[in-house]
Amino acid sequence: MAGLVLFVLVSITSIDALLVHPKDFIVSNGGGNSSLHQSLEHWHSVSRNDIISSGLTPTMEDSNNNLYMVPEFTENNFDPLLTNAATPHTLSPIETRTIDEASSSGLDRRKVLKRSLSENHVMITQHFTERTVTPGGDISMQCSATGDRPPQFIWERDGVVVSSNTDPRYALGQVMTSDNSVVTQLNITRVRVEDGGMYSCTAKEGDHAATYENRLDVYGPPYIRSLPPIKVQSGESVNLRCPFYGYPISKIDWEFKGKPINSNSLFPSRYKRSHQAHVTRQAHQKRKTRRSVVNIHGVLTIPEVSKEENGAVYTCIVTSPSGEMARRAFEIQVIEAPILEDLLLGNNLQEGQIVNIYCNVRSGDMPIHFEWLKDGKRIPSSLKVVERSSELFSALVIKRVSLEHCGTYTCVASNHVAKVNKSTELYIKVAPKWQEEPSNSSLLLGRRGTVSCSASGYPQPQVHWMKKDAILGTWQPVLELAGGGILSLPNGTLVIEEVSLTDEGLYSCNVENGVGTPLSKTVWMSVNKPVHFETSSQNVTSRLGHPVSLECRALGDEPIRIVWTHDGNIVDFQLHRAKLSESKTPVGLISTVSLQYSETADAGLYQCRASNPYGASSFTIYLTILEPPTPPSELRIEAVRSRSALVSWHETSRTHARHFSVQYAPALYADAGWDHSVNINVTRKDTDIRQSVELQNLHPATAYAVRVATGNQVGVSRYTAPVHFTTHEEAPSSPPINIQVEQTENPGELFVSWLPPPKETHNGVITGYHIKAVPQNSGAVSEDTDTRTLKVSQQSGKQETAISGLLKNTRYAVSLSAFNSAGSGPFSLPVYQDTMEGAPEQAPSSVECTAVSSTSLRVGWQPITLPGQGSSLIGYTILFATEDSAWQNQTSLHTELYLQSLMKYTNYTVKVAGFSSFGAGPYSYPIICATLQDVPDPPADIKVLVLSPTSLLVSWKRPERPNGELIYYTVYVKPTSGTGPPQTHRVEAGRTSAEVKELTPGRTYECWVTASTAAGEGASSRRVSHTPTQRVVAGVASLGGTVSVGVGSSLLLVCQCVGAPPPRTVWYHKHNIITHHPRFTRNHDDSLLINNIDQSLSGNYTCLAKNLYGSDQVEYTVIVLPLPEAPILRATPYKDSILVEWEQPYYSISNRSSSQKISYSLTWKEASGPWQEAWSANKLPNLSGVQKHVLTGLKCGTKYSLRITATNKVGTSQPAYLDVSTLGGTPIPPSTNEWLWSNASYISVQLAGWDDAGCDLRAWELDYRPLGSRSWIRAHNSMAYADQSWGSGLGLYRSSPSYRTGSVAAGALAAGAWYQLRVTATNEAGSVTTTYNYATKNEDGSEVGPPSEFFDINMLVITFSSILLILCLLSCVYILIKRQRSGMLTEYRDSITVDKSESGNITANTSHSNLTNVKENALNAQNRIYSAPIHVRNNSKHELYEISPYAQFAVGFRTFGHVENQDLPSRHKHRYDTETSFQVCSESEDSDSISKSTLKSVPRKGCRTPHHR
């Protein structure tokens, strides 16, 4: 079968390679591997020319004219008897080979370079895997590789290249990815059995390649591809791989001369290495026992093939598990490699002779091919070398040999299995010839000089330089005479690193190589001097009007030419002042420029430019003309402090200042004259662009003037115009004087007066004072110290203030300090004064309460300790109350009190406070204690009913005052006619009825009940007599009475009935039978459940029970307790606190809620903040009269919302709201520029001019811009302040607010320019921004004039456009409103019809008179009230209902555009307003013509009277 490939692995033990020539054949060398991954040998194909030219060992040629490389093996790394010997070149499953150029030493196969994977430039990055498929399907195999350049791929099957030309079912393609990798794919459609085999993908890029191979098996019968005879080199081992396909395969066998060589079962252990027969070391060393070995992959290894085995036939047999078999025979042809003799070449060859080189073959099988190389490359045709060859030899003929023919010649002989070569060297002798003949040269003094002298010849000629000694007249070697600095290069060039005068003279260049006549040439080397100067520059100084001479000395050979320039311009010597003179010297030329007298313009840079034929150079002279100095410029104040200032200026050009004279004096003296000024001499600093000096020992907050003059050798200039500046402030250096502290009538308050510190110690403008009050009789002095800051009320004169919020009856040490914008001065010596005593400031401690009896309690406490007690403590007041009663008050002069006539077994809340003539102090934390238990009161009522002819049912009500925990009830029963003791029946405390059995019918019994506690049995109830009868009349065992219940809760009325037959019950409310009602529920036990009770459901309830023999009833009086009314809320604001007061709601005598205890809940918030609790739940109990609470820690000048509710057992009232703002406001800026100050470079804003409006100033921002500019610039020294506290005093009683001081400044401004300053001051109440126009001073400190009128066209355009836009908007709004009103009135008028009715009921349409009410109500709904409501007391005959300010009422009206007789959507439902609990109902659910605003005149249907909250 055509196209079959046999893989023959040949082990190369000799140096020569094996060349096997049959088509479709691959040979690889190395031992066979028993591992699957190590047995797959990979090779890449290259062209024949690449193999031959590179010198690598060729392998085999296939049908596509490709050669396959055979790696080199030695006997040390291959054992022909072991099939599992790994070869060192194996790179399975991916192998890379590199083809390199041979070295210049010839085609030596021992020098083949083997590179590792990391050294190659092509790498397989992705590959296919071994596959087993069924025929008929499609399969795709993919490889990817990367390299320095995109590689190309070749696909092979069993060593034969496959493509779409091989079979149209094969499709190949490759594509480049984004990461520069190349991906190739081989797609096979409709796979057949013969498509199976070993597939390989080879990536090539230049001389580099990488290969990966793996097997594709297709299910089918086995078959073996045919191969032509295999040519193998004698003496080498060969590995034969059977090119089979088909699957599955159970074993592969080989036969030789009809006998099996070896057999291994592949089916059960295909991927395992099979066991190999042991080979003795002796047989291995002698290599006499030759055994052919087959590994698990069917590779047959034949070691050391000899010539005698030529024509041997080996047969491969492939067997499947089903018994199918395929066999194929392969013939081995053994070929001897050629052996060459040494090349023959003549000796002593001369240029121009004929040269023959012979290459003879000693042995080797034909045909043999010859090829010649020169220096490892093909011989170029330009050398005209003729090659003559026959079967056994080859010769090269050179008819006229020359120097170009010299080199290494290699003869390469090759046949089918090997390629060998021999090399020899060809060289001839050639006499030297000039290539670059030396000539006379001119060298420059001090420069580098070179003289060329070179010649050609073989051997390479040697060059020697000689120099003639000018004194002795003899020739000597140059290198010996020079003594360094001279060298001769290999090419014959003489190099002198630095030419000197001694290098001038005769030189001789001698060339010889031992062939022919030596060459010699004598030349003259002259040394010329280029023009130069000893120095490069010079400084010359002269006074104005004096003569000046500028001299230039040029050195060098003639002719020398000199040109003078001044500041880059050629000097004009036609001027009568300037003269030029030149004089020659032995070494050069002197040129002199003379100026009869100097002028200012003569100063500058002079250059003397000299040149001769050998070079050019220049000499620079800096001429300075000294003249009387001019004053400095740009005098300004760089920095100002309290006692120093930094002054800088710019010196005028051409003044050549040596020093500067600085004068400064207070502005008051400077304006009158500089006689009292201070003079400072400042030495000029050459490195500084601007000169500067720091003025020391100045006075704070003082205006100064400063000026500067320049001095040099000539004299001193006039002074500059003075520049004014004011030193910064310092903290005052002395305290206030004449301090007086007096006591006031108010407790905890002192009145302080004082005078400012002496004027000379102010160090600025006094803006305020710190007052420190330290209590002297307090343990924690540091905590109680009260330091306050006050704004100065006037610049001079007496100051005074009142300090409130101090501790009462306490001695204080009061001291003051003054402060200005720089800080605070020292405090004065303390002045002592006592505050008046007030009410006690502390509550009694350790309050305890003990029960003495069932009606008395003992309350004890610890006395108030000093200083909180004061000296005028009168006694203590004790408040006590039950949970439902009001507070009661008793006083005591001692630290204990017995409370008498209390309610039995009742919890009392007790708290104690001290009081003096100034009032009561704070109360202690309330404690709760209870009186002791006592015997209970008798049951409130009793009732006896006949239950049966022999039993009675006794029912009773609980005692009104149990006086303890009830344990049980005792029921007593006694016949009225009997004299014996009564029967007793004990009933548990939870029951209120008992059945008395085993009675005698017709006999009268007397019954009574008592209650018992732990203290004993109480009094008995009234006695009731009853007689059991045969007829059981209907009766109601439940006992009625008055029942109080809170509004909105549920109430269960019990009706326990007896009788035979069972009676029927009926419930009545206000004498009306209760039928179906959503609030009433009749239970199975005849009880009545009332849900969501309100005032309309109060009154009498009667349960009537009736049977054939009679009836009975029980009556309840239900009182509905309303919710407490909202408290009346008042508030008094302070700076950072609010005093909140509220009044207890007023109740009528009949309102039982007045006896209930009420608690309050106060919440507050900022305008947009969350609600916050003022205290925890039930922390403040009910107090008599007005309640009060202080909200502290609030923001100054901020609006707050207050909300308070009252809560009792019934529920919580509607909230009362109140909006109030703390005292203070946004900062008040000054209206004038008096608080602004400037100099020539910055403007300062004194912050003391801003009034804080009662709220501490927290931050300042300063923006500025030149007047007329549009963009603002933010100053970098804006200030932020932290909040300062007044100390420990209560915020409610704090005095004047703290006052902030300091300044902000805008720096780096232009002198004498107008600026706009925008100052933003911020406090807790908000921020205010004010704009000022202010100008910097001129450089001399003078004021600038008013700003010039300028016309800002941009502002005019913006203003005009804004006005025009507003007018257009107003016009549009007016037109829309006009049209809408006209349309609405027309439609509304058409939709209204008036139907007068005598009954007075409202008709279907609203009357015109009612339309007015609609408009008024709509107007009123828009005007909402947000103040706290004042509740009308409800003790009048008619209840008035206060409408909550937050209630919103929708005003009903007819929808415009509504069609007559068209029903509106059903959306009329009962609407309850959450604030007022009013229920609004419509007359009809489907009527759309009745406005809700007219409901006052419409009889309500199904609407109950709203209750008052």
Descriptive notes:
- With 1509 residues, the protein is mainly beta.
- Helices cover 6% and strands 42% of the residues.
- The strands form 29 sheets. Strands 6, 8, 10, 11, 14 and 15 form a 6-stranded mixed beta sheet that branches. It has a 5-stranded mixed beta sheet with strand order 2-1-18-23-22, with no helix packed on it.
- Strand 52 and strand 53 form a beta hairpin.
Question: What is the secondary structure topology, with strand pairs?
Answer:
Elements: E1 6-11, E2 25-28, H1 36-39, E3 45-46, H2 48-54, E4 60-61, E5 67-68, E6 94-98, E7 122-126, E8 131-133, E9 139-147, E10 152-157, E11 160-161, E12 170-176, E13 182-188, E14 197-205, E15 208-218, E16 220-224, E17 230-233, E18 237-241, E19 244-247, E20 251-256, E21 259-265, H3 281-286, E22 293-294, E23 299-302, E24 312-319, E25 325-335, E26 339-340, E27 355-363, E28 369-374, E29 377-378, E30 386-389, E31 393-398, E32 407-414, E33 419-426, E34 430-436, E35 441-444, E36 449-451, E37 454-458, E38 462-468, E39 475-477, H4 478-482, E40 486-488, E41 494-496, E42 505-512, E43 519-528, E44 537-543, E45 548-555, E46 561-566, E47 569-570, E48 578-585, E49 588-595, E50 604-612, E51 615-626, E52 633-640, E53 645-650, E54 659-666, H5 667-672, E55 678-683, E56 691-695, E57 703-711, E58 723-726, E59 737-743, E60 750-755, E61 768-775, H6 781-784, E62 786-791, E63 799-803, E64 811-820, E65 823-824, E66 831-834, E67 845-853, E68 856-862, E69 873-881, E70 888-892, E71 896-899, E72 907-916, E73 919-920, E74 927-930, ...
Parallel strand pairs: 1-2, 8-15, 17-25, 35-43, 44-51, 84-92
Antiparallel strand pairs: 1-18, 3-5, 4-5, 6-15, 7-9, 9-13, 10-11, 10-14, 12-13, 14-15, 16-19, 18-23, 20-21, 20-24, 22-23, 24-25, 26-27, 27-31, 28-29, 28-32, 30-31, 32-33, 34-37, 36-41, 38-39, 38-42, 40-41, 42-43, 45-49, 46-47, 46-50, 48-49, 50-51, 52-53, 53-56, 54-55, 54-57, 57-58, 59-60, 60-63, ...
